[in-house]
């Protein structure tokens, strides 16, 4: 009897959708592949991303250092608003780019949990950028 090969096309579909989002937001293939590598190391990230792709909202099941995907997304929006000095989300704010940045931030936070008192706990302040 020959061995069976089990093929799960879900990961291929998720990766293809990640590539499309990266292309849409102007991210390089290298950046996209780095995020994908983080996701492959943490199935929770793939679950969160798959849910986002299907529902366009975060599952928020995953938490790292007490922060959810929504927390990281809002932080990305705040960072954009400070850089643009607009105080609100204008049409120039690419929400899909903020989503990708939130996933990348979660991947980094999972990989390198911060020490107590780090930048997440002290906040960024009006005149500081991470």
- What is the number of E strands? 0
Return Rg in Å: 16 Å
pLDDT < 50 runs, ≥5 residues: 126-130
- Mean pLDDT equals 82
Q: Helix count?
A: 6
Summarize the structure.
The protein has helices at 9-25, 29-41, 43-55, 69-84, 95-111, 119-122.
Give a description of the structure.
By secondary structure, the protein is an all-alpha fold. Helices cover 62% and strands 0% of the residues. It contains 6 helices and no strands. The protein has helices at 9-25, 29-41, 43-55, 69-84, 95-111, 119-122. Helix 1 packs antiparallel against helix 2 (29-41) and helix 4 packs across helix 5 (95-111). The protein is globular and about 60 Å long. Mean pLDDT is 82; it is low at 126-130.
Main attributes?
single chain, 130 residues, mainly alpha, globular
What is the topology?
Elements: H1 9-25, H2 29-41, H3 43-55, H4 69-84, H5 95-111, H6 119-122
Helix pairs in contact: 1-2, 2-3, 4-5
């Amino acid at each position: 009897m020959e061995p069976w090969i089990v093929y799960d096309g879900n990961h291929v579909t998720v990766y293809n959708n990640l590539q499309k989002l990266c292309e849409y937001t102007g991210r390089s293939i290298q950046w996209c592949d780095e995020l994908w590598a983080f996701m492959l190391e943490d199935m929770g990230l793939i679950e969160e991303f798959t849910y986002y792709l299907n529902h366009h909202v975060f599952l928020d099941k995953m938490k790292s250092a007490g922060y959810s995907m929504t927390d990281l997304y809002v932080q990305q929006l705040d960072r954009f608003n400070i850089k643009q000095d607009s105080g609100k989300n204008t049409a120039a704010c690419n929400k899909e780019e903020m989503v990708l940045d939130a996933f990348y931030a979660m991947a980094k936070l999972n990989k390198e949990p911060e020490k107590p008192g780090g930048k997440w706990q002290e906040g960024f302040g009006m005149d500081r950028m991470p």
